Amino acid sequence: MKEKLEKIRQAALEKIAGSDALETLNEIRVAYLGKKGELTSVLKGMKDVSAEERPRVGQMVNETRAVIEAKLEETRAALAKKAREEKLRKEVIDVTLPAKKNNVGHKHPNMIALEEVERIFVGMGYEVVEGPEVEYDYYNFEALNIPKGHPARDEQDTFYINDKIVLRSQTSPVQVRTMEKGKLPIRVIAPGRVFRSDEVDATHSPSFHQIEGLVIDKGITFADLKGTLAEFARELFGEDTKVKFRPHHFPFTEPSAEVDVTCFKCHGEGCRFCKGSGWIEILGCGMVHPNVLRMSGIDPEEYSGFAFGVGLERIALLKYEIDDMRLLYENDIRFLKQF
């Protein structure tokens, strides 16, 4: 038994001495000291040892275990120290080098303008809603009182996926979907990306953003629309801003109007920015057409409402005095960092 324990000790010490990795040491520990290790098998064989010899043999086993464990711990500490030194050598830091510049980004001017518009209307009790950019022809046209054959359906203006599906040309379909839910009264704005087959130039793009608003309730009049947009203009462009409504035509509103605001550069006196008129056009609006209400399941005899729509890029161009819409999309950091 003594010779067997001596062989186990010598074999274990030789393997430990030849180890060059912590993983190898763990394997040696399991092989000799684990539940199925060689020393454990010796202890299991104690039943075959006479009662007189058991204490001496047990002491020899414990001494062998202690020697192996001590050598394992010594080697583990040495290997860990070596690994740490190697890691420090590879990860050396030159504290004399200049620090890396931390470039912090910020919001796009479109997003800044959108958040300001949302803040204004949420403060007036409106809810922000969204809808799909790929839309059914019904929601994009028919439900907005634009029947088949109407010029707004011209393929030169709208991106058709097939005869029933289009890329939405305005966010008005979100208003229809909101009305169809039947939860009245309604006070919502619907911002989002829209698509039209326009040539790219300083004021046009095939993909841009709109913010449309809708109010449906009992007793809503054009006076409510005028007061809402006048307050919106004052919040956005300044307290002394005035609004002017010009008659217009939209298929989904009746009566309809385009809205101008006094130039916030010259305060209505006339300048280069407003081309000498003192006024700047910002949006279109009107009272929701009875046909639109009826197609959405709302009784036009009981309820009325108004709607309006403004281009987000137009607000950004005006507010930040940008003269070319393309600058918003070119991702030139020299331009964007100004905001």
Automatic annotation (TrEMBL):
PROSITE patterns linked: AA_TRNA_LIGASE_II
Cofactor binding remark: Binds 2 magnesium ions per tetramer.
Xref: CDD domains: PheRS_alpha_core (cd00496)
Aminoacyl-transfer RNA synthetases class-II family profile domain ranges (all copies): 117-330
Keyword entries, A-Z: Aminoacyl-tRNA synthetase, ATP-binding, Cytoplasm, Ligase, Magnesium, Metal-binding, Nucleotide-binding, Protein biosynthesis
Localization, UniProt: Cytoplasm
Record-level Gene Ontology MF annotations: ATP binding; catalytic activity, acting on a protein; magnesium ion binding; phenylalanine-tRNA ligase activity; transferase activity; tRNA binding
Cofactor(s) needed for function: Mg(2+)
Family named by the database record: Belongs to the class-II aminoacyl-tRNA synthetase family. Phe-tRNA synthetase alpha subunit type 1 subfamily.
Record's subunit section: Tetramer of two alpha and two beta subunits.
Protein name: Phenylalanine--tRNA ligase alpha subunit
